[in-house]
Amino acid sequence: MWTKTFASKVLREFAEARRRVISDWRIHLTARRLAHTENKPLPDEKKATDIRQELVGRGDIASVEGVAGVYIVNVAYANLLEVSEEQIVQEANPWAVFGYLTAMTYHGLTDLVAKEIYPIASKNGGNTHRLPLGTMPDDWSEGTRLIAARRPERVGDVSVHWTQLTEEPGFGVMIGYSSGIPIYVTDVERTLLDALRAPDKSGGIAKVLKAWRSAEDVDVGKLVSYADAYGNKVLRQRVGFLLEKLGKTHSRLEEWRHGLQRGGSVKLVASSPYSETFSAEWNLSLNVPPSILAIIEGS
Fold this sequence. Notes:
Radius of gyration: 23 Å
Protein name: AbiEi antitoxin C-terminal domain-containing protein
Strand content: 15-25%
Organism: Singulisphaera sp. Ch08
């Protein structure tokens, strides 16, 4: 009887949060919160599993195909709420950050209709810079690890392309919203930098240059700070070139010019062959077709 009663209380918590996408770890955490409030023993993993099985058995929640440990709530309140692929990926991996083309779409930096999702995760799985969204520090104060971060390859018909970092940089992440539910997404400045670093994950170099030109309210100081934080001289050369083409200035650009990296790897697009078209000021091979280069030049 306790399972049925507790399952109903857990479901009520999700209703109050207007959350339709849930997970094994969120069921466990919510059950622990309720037990703590009622001064009852904290449910262990087995009891949390019993609660989830009760909800599944009643038809209140259903598994997401291909995404282990994530469920869709099917009761009356939930039918009014939209579910997005980003919500499902975020619930499967609560430390994931949406970047590249997904972030470009979120910030209105591209006209592409994204048919794929591009999340970023660090190698160690968790992240000391962020809490899983919808949780509080007190939820983790007892040191209990409730989350097995997963990396689904598909959500329904949508492919999920993960980027694994050895370590999360610790900057350029903001809280956005997908159908009213919070998600982690790279901010405009980091999105522009990451797109320049990986055009293949961002719709191609033409779309990347269009994004740079369309980002009228970009914070140049923040952009320059992030480029410095990445610690890559070639990236600075690319950023410096683009900023000056866009008519934007910053005191660091002159310092960057004094520390130019020279050699065979200095190309605007790393994966493309060299071009004789060249920026002598930034020692940068402008290895894209003239029609694409014209995008950043505003013609």
